[in-house]
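Reply to thread "Modeling small-molecule complexes from scratch"

Following up on the discussion above, here's a worked example others can learn from. I took a protein sequence and the SMILES for fe (ii) ion and predicted the complex. Inputs first:
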Amino acid sequence: MLKSYLSNPPHFFKDYKSNINRAPRKKFFQITKAINKGSGLKVLSKNFDMNNNLLLFKKNKNPIGQKIIIKGKVIDRSGNPLKGIIIEIWQANASGKYRDENDTHDAAIDPNFLGYGATKTNYNGYYKFKTILPGAYPWGNHKNAWRPKHIHFSIINENIFNRLCTQMYFPNDFLLNYDPIFNSIAKKYRNSLIAKFDKKNNIVPNYLVFNFDIVL
Ligand SMILES: [Fe+2]
């Protein structure tokens, strides 16, 4: 079953326009130990603001949108839990707007939503974030292109040179059918990028709970 997680999308996928210019075309090479020396992770951990709650509640006001919990387990290919893994997420708010000055989408910034968070897996490999269901947003890839609701994940194992960047999607989002980034993944692996509604553990009042397990 874990085999289904072993596929990465191709570096070059022609329907995803921005990667026409930036996808690597030359053969990869291993970064040498000399460059890798001096534990990037230590420096990184110091600079990381660990905060797994993206909701701000300024003046006791709720952020706009559906409050959700994303939780899951990080395991290796043999199913062993991985502790101390740094997980960083960033996302648009409920109206599809990033807290980023380069975001030109005509939608509102929510003062009660941070849009960025980071945490570490515990001894049993578990992590959790409190956040908001992100909105879809338009982008210039093709005519009338909209990204499906998604959360960006950056997962760092032993050091910063070895990180996995991926995106998590939500069940039954019709925009998934039209998204070249999602569709650059081989069909049989796409489900592994969609969070599952955690019906059994949906016990936190006012939050929809989703499960998203990650295999490194
Ligand atoms: Fe995005």
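What I'd highlight from this example: Residues 139 and 202 are 33 Å apart (CA to CA). The pocket of fe (ii) ion is lined by residues 147, 150, 152 (CB under 6 Å). Questions welcome below.
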